[in-house]
Queue: 2 jobs
Job 1
Amino acid sequence: MSSTTLTERPTRSTLFDGLSRYIPVGATVVLLAAMYLGGIARYRNFDNPQLIPDLFIGNAALLIVAVGMTFVILSGGIDLSVGSVMAFSTMACAWLTVDAGLPASVAVPAVLAFGVLSGTFTGAVIHYFNVQPFIATLAGLFLYRGLTLQISDHDVSIREIDFFSWGMERVEFGDPRDGGFSLPYISFIAFAVVIVAFVVLHYTRFGRGVYAVGGSEQSALLMGLPVARTKIGVYAISGFCAALGGVVAAFYTKSANPLAGVGFELDAIAAVVVGGTLLTGGAGFVLGTVAGVMVMGLLSTIIAFQGNLSSWWARIVVGVLLLAFILLQRVLARSGEKRKG
Amino acid sequence: MSDEPIVQMTGITKDFTGVRALDGVDFTLRPGEIHAIMGENGAGKSTLIKVLTGVHSPDAGRILLDGRPVRFHSPGHAQSGGISTVYQEVNLTDNLSVAENLFAGREPRLGPFINFRAMRRRAQALLSDIGVDLNVAAPLSSYSIATQQLVAIARAVDIEAKVLILDEPTSSLDREEVAVLLRVMRTLADNGCALVFISHFLDQVYEICDRMTVLRNGRLVGEWATAELPENELIGHMLGREIEALEALERRSSAGGAAEAAPLVSAKGLGRKGAIAPFDLDIREGEVVGLAGLLGSGRTETVRLIAGADRHDSGAIEFDGRRLGGHNPRTAAARGIGFCPENRKTEGLVGELTVAENMILAMQASRGWARAIPPARRAELVAEFIAKLDIRPANGDLPVKNLSGGNQQKVLLARWLLIEPRLLILDEPTRGIDVGAKADIQRLVAELSEGGMAVLFVSAELEEVTRLSDRIAVLRDRELIDVLHQESDMTTERIVDTIVTRGGAE
């Protein structure tokens, strides 16, 4: 039976193909290193060992929300509701514990469960009613912001609740005067989220399904993959991450501000894209998102060190970076098409 | 070969917004056989398959699988019932690796985690079973479409398919690849799998199929064993009219007077670097000029220069005695040049718009947006051209994407005929469409040129070119090497000869 055997080597070298997937992420890492080394060369005390760990304190919530966003974007969708869901979660934590007097051990799981449910609902609307993710999650953006303001239109302090002081307790790694640093528990929550997300995306059927749906939803459907479960799942994960981001924000600020996290969804999307994930879905890495968040954090740090620049410069640079990364992705995609002929 | 059918569909009926796509169709499939479903585009082949695989649910009728009634509600559901499908367009995700595509959704696991090593090993084994050797860790996108097709088949086969449906799997494959595919199909059938094969290539159908079911206009014509149905009878059944329609269309003798007239189009030294070497070509009114040559010989590039779709960088082109400078399709249309590009989906039709809207586009553009075409006039024109070109279904309000390929091509033609061009440029107007529509289009080209229109016609099918053309320009390696105009030269042999000998002389 082996009269005709078809042997084909890839039309482009596997080496190139293997590498081209990593070019956007590689660019982010190079950028990160350049920023860090540039900072050390230019500013005194930039080599402080606490500088990098600090990125994961102020940006812990952003990292968690951006990881959730990575799932959604990989599947080819977008979630604009995360900033509002996050603010609502912080406010709900405050309301349930301060006003309703519930113990934090009830309030926090309830808030996280709410995040999953709201994401599941959004995902179901998107999938079963074939609504554009942009539109469905835009509705969530308004809905949850409104609900947050409905609970309280001013800051609510949660300093009195003992539980919320736990998150900022620090773990010391070595002596600070001797190259050591310290990290609060919220950073470890963020790391745990990253690790779980990495394992789920790369080593489980669900994770590979996310990539498949992002590559081509039509094909995934015809291949018999559980497209509905996958699409709803990514929004549930994003909802959970947004709610967890809200809890972490409660730890960090020890208060609930009804206008917290306005525009936060856009920061999260920017971090994902700067981290090398394709906005059209199907390609990217959760570790890239970590790098993306670090780039955005380091930018603010550099501007703070510079001292004479307004903080809006961070936004200007992020805007330029986003454009550069989107163009890089287009160039890579186009050269891929050309190679294929 | 067991006689107990594995699939039995009876009285299947399916309507799409007023169009009856299937009307009481029966279909029987037995284990170990390769069964072709034959019919023109729009006969209902794809719809029948989609009903069987759960993409569409039938409005009436019954499906028995292994003697038990079934109704699938998704392809995934049908797949778990043992019916797998490989489509014309490769439906895999090319951002994942070959191995991941083979096992997507059913990856071997260690606990909750995918066992990539086992998956790669099994993928390699699976592919070598059907005689394919690939680097399974490489992304699918790094392989040719043909190879991706084989991966899709390997995937379908491994899902322990009792029934494997191949919907036009060979349309993008070359000869050798087709041979591999047919061999794989036979192996599968010998192992007891029942295969459904849909293809436009009659020779492949006759080579591989045991039995065929013929559909026409959504109705069952009949079922035959391949050996009992000669090819001409099959075509007769598919068309439902005398095949002579095709043959009666004898090559017209060169329009006598036309040769003397001044040319309508005159290209002198026209060329574009990297696309086509400078060439001279005249086209007179009432004349059909065919372009013949192999794929990549510069056929499309030539017509695009004349149509103004690409800018020429040498020479000049005159139309009706006036020189065309930096013309583009818009100004060309205003002067009376209609251009139907090669790829009707991406360069021609707007799928979401209706048949009528698509037809009217060029005419509206040539009038300017401010001067709307009166609705009554519009309806009249659309009805006239639907009838003239025999567009089916004859409903101007359907979205064009719902039509079959042949009918889409006719809509595109109608668009340009509406502006009454003096030169009509057709690039591969009959590619990928069924025999009936092909005959309609060929007849139309003949009629138009008799009415005084100049036609520039590109086709990969030499027979078609020789049948229709008054003169044939032969291309090779992006160069116009000869123009054949003698009656005796208008044969496929002569064209092939020209391509071979003139090319060798260089």
Job 2
Amino acid sequence: MNKMKLVFSQTLMISTAILFGIGLQGALAALFEQDSTIVWDWYIPFSIIMTGFLSALPSVLITGYENLKKTMIRFRIMLHIISIWGIVSLSGYIFGWYKDFKGWIGISVMYFFIYFFVWFGSWWLAKEDDKKINNALDEIRDDE
Amino acid sequence: MKVELQRVTSAADESALIRTVEVTENIQYAIDVLENNCRSLAVTRDNETLMVRTDKIYYAESVDKRSYVYTKENCYETKLRLYEMEEQLNTNFFRCSKALIVNIRKIKGVRSEINGRMTAELLNGEEIVISRSYVKDLKRKLGL
């Protein structure tokens, strides 16, 4: 049940991140190229959700880093990054998100930006949690 | 010392007044018991049975079906299982992994790790791991 929840939440998060990336590209196009129109084929929204779902699967299979050595954790994180990059690239190729190498580079840059943004966000939230917990512990800690 | 007991109808009205010439070890123990619901646990060390005050316990651990209790400097064995200790120990204790119960008043600070777990440094410099699934319990216990 927890794994299903993880897949569902990751699907939503990744789909939203892809939409954010497309939105950003659209905004940049509107700003610099005076072209504010995005035309989508009927299958594009489904392709985004499908990619979100497929990209969520490595999180279930590869993450779960408890009781692992640091080198294994680093290896798994690298595997996670590369496998999702592969899924996004393949989905982009199948669904025609990019037409040439330049387009693939654009998709890849967007992917890495979103991936590290999510990592940074998670790290920042964890540090905020640490601060809150440590402040609460200050109130009740024994004097020794 | 003369002890007077007066019954009240609600828990909010409960209080204790100790009139003493000086705060002896026993008086301090009574204060600790009243303030922290502090009790003692029967433990063994070098075939000698001792009583350890629960407010002196840093953490309790289960290793190979044996249970151990750790204070600032000593380690004792106890016949109690971890779940039995969990029932006997007061609200300052919480389970931080499958095999460990820690006294939150003895935690100096916590820091999040990359694998979702937390490392807690205790007042005696020891470090213990708080499993990812138990971090929520810690936050709930601290009212966060």
